[in-house]
């Protein structure tokens, strides 16, 4: 069942992310499903930490990007979603290629959403799992 309450497409997500951290880090939106979003981030000099691995903070940026976009698209048309809490467990270091994240809702409530974001390397191995809680704000 389609959960989006607002228009949802790769083109829309790309457009609303212009002039943000998303293009700066090379994040690309790949898919908008009925109840999930997919995006990826390159593992390169823009996103490495000093040991040559994907910076854990970049994984969190990917997770927050997907969770925030998902919550905003699934919120009522006149509402906005903002982050309350995010956590991430870094499971496997990634040195090159891409990390792809898939965001799915765990809970869609009237005032909060919880989203799970699983991130995998090019070999399909889980590199990071994240969960974000979003506040759903009514118009003022």
Textual characterization of the structure:
By secondary structure, the chain is α+β, with helices and mostly antiparallel strands. It has one domain (10-137): Thiol Ester Dehydrase, Chain A. The protein contains 3 helices and 6 strands. A 6-stranded antiparallel β-sheet has the order 1-2-4-5-6-3. It is globular. Residues 52-128 form the Thioesterase domain. InterPro entries: HotDog_dom_sf (IPR029069), PAAI_dom (IPR003736), Thioestr_dom (IPR006683).
Protein traits:
140 residues; alpha+beta; Thiol Ester Dehydrase, Chain A; six-stranded antiparallel sheet; 3 helices; 6 strands; globular
Number of strands: 6
> Strand sequence of the main sheet, in spatial order?
1-2-4-5-6-3
Name the beta content range. 35-45%
> Shape, please?
globular
Indicate the low-confidence ranges by residue numbers.
none
Largest sheet: 6 strands, antiparallel
Q: What is the CATH-assigned architecture? A: Roll
Please name the CATH topology. Answer: Thiol Ester Dehydrase, Chain A
Any idea what the CATH superfamily is called?
Answer: Hotdog Thioesterase
Mean pLDDT: 98
- What share of residues is helical? 10-25%
**Tally the helices: what do you get?**
3
Instruction: Work out the count of structural domains.
Output: 1
Distance between the termini: 30 Å
Structural class: alpha+beta
Could you tell me the radius of gyration in angstroms? 15 Å
CATH class: Alpha Beta
Summarize the helix and strand pattern as letters.
HHEEHEEEE
Keywords: Hydrolase
Domain Thioesterase: 52-128
Pfam families: 4HBT
Family: Belongs to the thioesterase PaaI family.
């Amino acid at each position: 069942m389609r959960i989006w309450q607002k228009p949802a497409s790769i083109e829309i997500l790309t457009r609303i992310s212009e002039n943000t951290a998303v293009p700066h880090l090379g994040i690309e939106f790949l898919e908008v499903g009925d109840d999930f979003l997919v995006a990826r981030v390159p593992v390169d000099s823009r996103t490495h930490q000093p040991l040559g691995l994907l910076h854990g903070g970049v994984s969190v940026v990917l997770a927050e990007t997907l969770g925030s976009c998902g919550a905003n698209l699934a919120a009522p048309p006149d509402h906005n979603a903002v982050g309350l809490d995010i956590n991430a467990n870094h499971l496997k270091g990634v040195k090159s290629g891409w990390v792809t994240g898939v965001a799915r809702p765990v809970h869609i409530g009237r005032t909060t959403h919880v989203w799970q974001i699983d991130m995998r390397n090019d070999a399909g191995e889980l590199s990071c799992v994240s969960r974000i809680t979003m506040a759903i704000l009514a118009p003022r």
